[in-house]
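### Sample
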Amino acid sequence: FLDRRFPIRSQTAWFKKARRKRVGVRHKRSDRSIAAAQVGKRLLCDLLVYEPTMYAVFFSSMAFLEGGGLSDAKFRISTLLLPTYLTGLTISPIIQSINFAFVPLIYRVPFSSCFDLFWDSYLSWVNNEKLAMIEESNE
């Protein structure tokens, strides 16, 4: 979706220098600046739309799968979503910027999956710690 919505003419556009120097004509934006803007747009969409949505889906689905109800899902989302999102903002922009700017489309899923393995482990740890806190408070 992001590739179609915010296209970059080529993966090498990031490295290209502006070659359009015409006398008397206003300079157009360079391929590099256009590519940087498109990467920035992709990154913003990913960070502002995709990530919070996926965290909410993860915590709510874990609540239901672990036998909790709607109130447990709401509790997990209200207590875990913001801290997890803020933690994700420390590393996700770096990984996704590299992914969007330099990695060809065919290799993006394997590239991001390498980092997602560690991030998913962190999400499971956060979910488990909060589950333990909920159980302790109920006892």
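The mean pLDDT is 81. This sample (Protein required for ethanol metabolism) is used throughout the tutorial notebook.
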